[in-house]
Amino acid sequence: MEETCKNVYITTPIYYVNDVAHIGHAYTTIIADMLARYSRLTGHNTYFLTGTDEHGQKIAQSAQAKGKTPKEYADEVSGKFKQLWDDFDITYDKFIRTTDEEHKLGAQKAFEKMYEKGDIYKGEYEGFYCVSCETFFTEKQLIDEQFCPDCGKPTSIVKEESFFFKLSAYEDRLLKWYEENEDCILPRAKKNEIVNFVKGGLRDLSISRTSFEWGVKLPDSINEPKHVMYVWLDALINYISALGYGSDEKEFNFWPASVHLVGKDILRFHSIYWPAFLMSLELPLPKHIAAHGWWTRDGEKMSKSKGNVVNPKEVADAYGLDAFRYFMLREVPFGQDGDFSQKALIDRINSDLGNDLGNLLNRISGMSGKYFDFKIDSKDVQKYHQKELDEVNEILENVEDLIFNMQINRYLEEIWKVLTIANRAIGDYEPWTKMKEGKNDEAMALVALITNIMAKCSILLQAVMPEKISMIAKSLGINIDTKLYNELIVDKGLIQNTIITKVEQLFPRIEEPLLQTAPEVKKDKNEVEQKEEEPDNLITIDKFFETTLKIGTIVEAVEVPKSKKLLKLQVDVGENKYRQVLAGIKEFYKAEDLVGTQACIVANLKPAKLMGMLSEGMLLAAKDENGLCLIRPEKTKISGTKIS
Ligand code: MSP
Predict the structure, then answer these.
(1) 25 lines ligand 1 (CB under 6 A)
(2) Which pTM value belongs to this model?
């Protein structure tokens, strides 16, 4: 967000619809909402976009598992996201869905434009795909030659015709952009990671898939009906299709984005692919891409199987939406990981919100009521308190920069310093003593000083805690809007006369956690170790039995020409049935030594093509630093015997 910018465009990532919203999603959305509210208050023309990402293999698979069509499933989950943001009073201007017709038109137009420009070519993709992350990897990037380096889940080998985007051609232009735009990626440490990654070399990006259908079709002009767009290309385009790219272009004056807010896990997509796509489309690049860290709960990674995922609605219902917003924005420096615990939340509520903010308001209404019949007059504030005013104005003058640099926790810290000046002044000047001494003017000046400090802080906190701040504003008899912002913050002015109204306690003290806590984490060392090793994706026995494991006898084995790894095996799986299996074990076994031996085979694996040949199963094997060995029965068993 630039100070001079009249049009401000703020986006959240669009959320996958294969899961319900959790605290991580709420975090990004709350930051974006805070920025949007702040931008509107400070007089900018603001557009705030959020929405859902609904295509791709992952969503199709989740829908299938629930016995629904992908669209039915997407409608349901997308609706839940929207409902949550409405419950949270999130002030988005548009909620985009990638299944919206206008979005599809935008995505197709972008594809067509990049194709016409010569940045897209047809080829064949062969590599590893993680469905969970919807990301392609090279063999070198995999962990143990199989697992996704980002989420740890198994990848699958994909070999299919695909369109490619010439990402490699944009390497130099990207590096130049990073160099010339210091703050294009925030925080800086994350920017360095990206720059180094790009310097390491970029490969062209596969941007279409043929093995499933749940995606945006390629434009008719390309005439490739088998292909759907790679979900990340489809998804990133939402930022322009939402403004009418490819359809009515109605809001396109908001482009380029002022800030794309993203989690650190999706920064690469936003700071490498997205700018390259935009360069190809000859569109201006976003001003900032800001990556936040990840939330854990009570020091533990959140996962469904541990049952410790924080439900943001539950927290907001129990502790209050504004307290939750304040906690999220205050607790963690932007870009760093944060931990959610009820203890930390309660501490913030009781200390920052209850003692420092809520009590100050009580003191204003208490003193003004007792001494001045709730009437405040600021005429002598400068006479008696210029020093405090200067201190306050100096701090508040600089806080805006912190917002532009996404240092929202620091912004809040600075505002709290100002609240401390107010609380301290009451102790220093003791208005009750002044009243006893008959120095009513001085007492009034003090109460008016505090009221003005409270008004200034409220203006700057409105975007953070809209509901509670509107109660404070009501109590102070002020109306927080751009005009008042200009008068009190920009011009450093004072409210002259006002009447205080008593309000109920804003942040009642909380003694006990209000939510049932997450399953206890065992402190015993062995148990902790066990816990750490426990996989995230525990399954039920029924799930395990979905895999059919059988004893197979290898009846034929030959090397696959031109492959360093593959052997082609014919495996007898009983009842005179043979399965062709392509196994990556050539470095560890000679083909002829395998014939006649037995192995364990996954017998209900969907057939896949490897190097143009069908593979109809998988052999179980174990690999460590000493090499790989097949898992075999201890004694010979009849071919086809089920393993359980
Ligand atoms: N659909 C993509 C984004 C496409 S944007 C063109 C996606 N969706 S997501 O639903 O998986 O994640 C959305 C956001 O939630 C990401 O920014 C991610 O970082 C954030 N979070 C998911 N889990 C999180 C935490 N535990 N903590 C903080 N944020 C995390 O990625």
Answers:
(1) yes
(2) 0.80
